Amino acid sequence: MNFFHPLRSLACGLLLLLAATAALAQGTPLRLLVGFPPGGSTDVIARQLALGLQQELGRSVVVENRAGAGGQIAAQALKAARPDGNTLFLSNAHTVAIVPVTVLNPGFDVAKDFAPIGLVTVNPDALAVNPAVTGPLAGGLKDFTAWTQAGPGRASIGVPAPGSAPEFAVSVIGRAAGARLTAVPYRGDAPLVQDVVAGQVPAGIGGVGALLPYVEAGKLRLLAVNGPARLPRFPDVPTYAELGIKGLEEVMFTALFAPAGTPAALLRQYHAALAKVAASAAFSERIASLGVSASVGTPEELGQRVERSRLVYERLAREAGFQPQ
């Protein structure tokens, strides 16, 4: 038995902590990786988080966009980064809970390669229709699904990406309503919403933040939201569960991770800073326009949340007949 192995591990951890302390003293910027382009909701949350962390840590925080492949490029970059506290990753649920069940070789293992720091926001999705295309649909979702079956070209529902939570939601809604619905994948929420507003597709499922300006302008109408409760901003919009549709209770989220092997003292420091930022009125107000809410738990709770979400989306993908690619 090698009795010195624990001592070597402790020594390595101390060296990394000393290196991180030296980097902080020298003003080395903290990199915050984001797996999506500038301007999207995850990027906006990251930039607001960076402002708060910079103030709490007394250290420059630089957002680094590594866009592509549903966040896989940024996730792989985190895996390759030194665990010295100089690189963090703001991921959404798609990257850490859906990509692992829809991609055969994502190039990372969340449980082995990442150290959870904490949840940052919860991000509900909603089903929106174009009233000019579908009519008033006073009866809501039930009327809409009946309308989709009454003529050609009506059953298409836009989703922000293939193999995404909204694509699986289309399948769940169709089965529950006994309707044949077709998910039409886009490259993100922005082009999806533009096509729904323009009437190219009658409806779409996307992040509430992307839909919000058009709902307030009367160009889109929300029929349902996912998650366990209605949105405070839209108290008249029911959840899927209230409409008798089960399986869409899971809500998307963003969360903060460090490379596996990052010293525990640094992880505690980052979690404490994150908790203060997320609890601040400034952060909550800045992200309110995105239709998201701040929410922070312990690192252990984040690990459990990721695994629970992964199992949910694994089941939804299987029920939808989605084959990992």
From TrEMBL:
Q: Does the keyword Signal apply?
A: yes
Q: Which domain of life is it from?
A: Bacteria
Output the Pfam families linked to this UniProt entry.
TctC (PF03401)
Q: Which UniProt keywords apply?
A: Receptor, Signal
Q: Which Gene3D superfamilies match?
A: Bordetella uptake gene, domain 1, Periplasmic binding protein-like II
Asked if the record carries the keyword Magnesium, the reply is no
Show which residues constitute the signal peptide. 1-25
Hey, which family's this protein in?
A: Belongs to the UPF0065 (bug) family.
Q: What is this protein called?
A: Tripartite-type tricarboxylate transporter receptor subunit TctC
